[in-house]
Amino acid sequence: MAESRLAAAMDDIRVQSGFDAAVLIDMEGKMLAEVHSPETQPNTVETLLQVASQVTVRAENKSGVEASGESEFFDWEGRRIVCRWFKARRSGVLVLLVPKGKSYKWATNRMVKELQHLIGA
Questions:
Q1: What count of Cα atoms within 13 Å lies in the side-chain half-sphere of residue 13?
Q2: What's the rounded Cα separation, in Å, for the pair 58 and 21?
Q3: Distance between CA 117 and CA 55 in Å, rounded?
Q4: How many helices (H) and strands (E) does the chain have?
Q5: pLDDT per position as a tens digit, 15-52
Q6: Is pLDDT at 1 greater than 50 in this prediction?
Q7: Tens-digit pLDDT profile for residues 43-81
Q8: Distance (Å, rounded) from C-alpha 29 to C-alpha 54?
Q9: Percent of the chain beyond pLDDT 90?
Q10: 52: enclosing H helix or E strand
Q11: Model-level pTM?
Q12: How far apart are CA 78 and CA 105, in angstroms?
Protein backbone atom coordinates (compact mmCIF):
# COMPACT_ATOMS: atom_id res chain seq x y z
CA MET A 1 0.00 0.00 0.00
CA ALA A 2 1.55 3.27 -1.10
CA GLU A 3 0.63 6.39 0.82
CA SER A 4 0.49 8.24 -2.50
CA ARG A 5 -2.39 5.97 -3.60
CA LEU A 6 -4.22 6.79 -0.38
CA ALA A 7 -3.68 10.52 -0.87
CA ALA A 8 -4.80 10.35 -4.52
CA ALA A 9 -8.00 8.50 -3.61
CA MET A 10 -8.70 10.89 -0.72
CA ASP A 11 -8.09 13.94 -2.88
CA ASP A 12 -10.38 12.72 -5.67
CA ILE A 13 -13.26 12.29 -3.22
CA ARG A 14 -12.37 15.50 -1.35
CA VAL A 15 -12.52 17.55 -4.55
CA GLN A 16 -15.75 15.90 -5.76
CA SER A 17 -17.38 16.48 -2.38
CA GLY A 18 -16.13 20.02 -1.87
CA PHE A 19 -14.36 19.23 1.41
CA ASP A 20 -11.62 21.62 2.53
CA ALA A 21 -9.23 19.01 3.91
CA ALA A 22 -8.79 15.38 4.91
CA VAL A 23 -6.13 13.69 7.04
CA LEU A 24 -5.60 10.00 7.71
CA ILE A 25 -3.48 8.47 10.44
CA ASP A 26 -3.14 4.91 11.68
CA MET A 27 -3.99 3.93 15.25
CA GLU A 28 -0.33 4.30 16.24
CA GLY A 29 -0.47 7.97 15.26
CA LYS A 30 1.53 7.73 12.01
CA MET A 31 0.24 10.00 9.26
CA LEU A 32 -0.72 7.99 6.20
CA ALA A 33 -2.06 10.77 3.98
CA GLU A 34 -3.13 14.40 4.03
CA VAL A 35 -4.90 16.41 1.34
CA HIS A 36 -6.37 19.91 1.34
CA SER A 37 -7.58 22.71 -0.89
CA PRO A 38 -5.09 25.46 -1.74
CA GLU A 39 -7.11 27.85 0.45
CA THR A 40 -6.77 25.70 3.58
CA GLN A 41 -4.20 27.12 5.99
CA PRO A 42 -1.36 24.85 7.22
CA ASN A 43 -2.34 25.47 10.87
CA THR A 44 -5.84 24.17 10.06
CA VAL A 45 -4.37 20.93 8.72
CA GLU A 46 -2.20 20.69 11.84
CA THR A 47 -5.30 21.05 14.02
CA LEU A 48 -7.00 18.21 12.13
CA LEU A 49 -3.94 16.03 12.77
CA GLN A 50 -4.14 16.85 16.48
CA VAL A 51 -7.81 15.80 16.53
CA ALA A 52 -6.92 12.50 14.87
CA SER A 53 -4.09 11.94 17.34
CA GLN A 54 -6.45 12.46 20.28
CA VAL A 55 -8.63 9.61 19.01
CA THR A 56 -5.64 7.28 18.89
CA VAL A 57 -4.58 8.31 22.41
CA ARG A 58 -8.07 7.57 23.67
CA ALA A 59 -7.96 4.14 22.04
CA GLU A 60 -4.52 3.49 23.55
CA ASN A 61 -5.80 4.37 27.00
CA LYS A 62 -8.63 1.88 26.53
CA SER A 63 -11.10 4.49 27.72
CA GLY A 64 -13.14 3.31 24.89
CA VAL A 65 -13.55 3.91 21.26
CA GLU A 66 -15.49 1.33 19.33
CA ALA A 67 -13.89 -0.54 16.42
CA SER A 68 -15.48 2.03 14.15
CA GLY A 69 -17.45 5.17 14.76
CA GLU A 70 -17.81 8.86 14.19
CA SER A 71 -17.64 12.09 16.08
CA GLU A 72 -18.33 15.57 14.77
CA PHE A 73 -18.17 19.12 15.96
CA PHE A 74 -18.07 22.61 14.50
CA ASP A 75 -15.39 25.27 14.43
CA TRP A 76 -15.98 28.99 15.03
CA GLU A 77 -16.66 29.54 11.33
CA GLY A 78 -19.42 26.92 11.23
CA ARG A 79 -17.36 24.32 9.40
CA ARG A 80 -17.96 20.72 10.42
CA ILE A 81 -15.03 18.63 11.62
CA VAL A 82 -15.83 14.96 11.14
CA CYS A 83 -13.68 12.32 12.80
CA ARG A 84 -14.29 8.76 11.59
CA TRP A 85 -12.28 5.81 12.88
CA PHE A 86 -12.50 2.48 11.13
CA LYS A 87 -11.20 -1.06 10.97
CA ALA A 88 -8.87 -2.24 8.24
CA ARG A 89 -5.73 -4.33 8.04
CA ARG A 90 -4.15 -1.14 9.36
CA SER A 91 -6.99 0.61 11.21
CA GLY A 92 -7.18 4.34 10.84
CA VAL A 93 -8.64 7.67 11.82
CA LEU A 94 -9.94 9.95 9.09
CA VAL A 95 -10.62 13.60 9.90
CA LEU A 96 -12.44 15.81 7.41
CA LEU A 97 -13.03 19.55 7.29
CA VAL A 98 -16.43 20.11 5.69
CA PRO A 99 -17.57 23.60 4.65
CA LYS A 100 -20.60 25.11 6.36
CA GLY A 101 -23.85 23.75 4.94
CA LYS A 102 -22.25 20.88 2.98
CA SER A 103 -23.52 17.33 3.42
CA TYR A 104 -20.82 14.81 4.16
CA LYS A 105 -22.11 11.35 5.12
CA TRP A 106 -22.26 9.78 1.67
CA ALA A 107 -18.82 11.08 0.66
CA THR A 108 -17.31 10.09 4.02
CA ASN A 109 -18.67 6.56 3.69
CA ARG A 110 -17.29 6.38 0.16
CA MET A 111 -13.87 7.62 1.30
CA VAL A 112 -13.69 5.12 4.18
CA LYS A 113 -14.68 2.22 1.88
CA GLU A 114 -12.05 3.24 -0.65
CA LEU A 115 -9.39 3.54 2.07
CA GLN A 116 -10.35 0.13 3.50
CA HIS A 117 -10.04 -1.33 0.00
CA LEU A 118 -6.60 0.21 -0.52
CA ILE A 119 -5.33 -0.62 2.97
CA GLY A 120 -6.98 -4.04 3.12
CA ALA A 121 -10.12 -4.66 5.14
A1: 24
A2: 23
A3: 22
A4: 3, 5
A5: 999 999 999 999 888 999 999 999 999 999 999 999 99
A6: no
A7: 999 999 999 998 887 765 544 555 678 889 999 999 999
A8: 9
A9: 68
A10: helix 42-60
A11: 0.89
A12: 17
Give, in degrees to the nearest 5, the angle at Cα 54 between 89 and 3: 40
Instruction: Indicate the number of domains in the chain.
Output: 1
H or E stretch covering 121 = none
Q: Do 82 and 74 meet the contact criterion of CB atoms below 8 Å apart?
A: no
Can you give the residue range of the structural domain that contains 100?
Answer: 3-119
**CB neighbours of 112 closer than 8 A, spacing ≥ 6?**
84, 86, 94
Q: Taking every pair of C-alpha atoms in the chain, what is the biggest distance, in angstroms?
A: 37
Q: In what order do the strands lie in the sheet with 92-98?
A: 31-36, 21-26, 92-98, 80-86, 69-74
Q: What is d(CA 55, CA 93) in angstroms, rounded to the nearest whole number?
A: 7
CATH code of the domain containing 42: 3.30.450.30
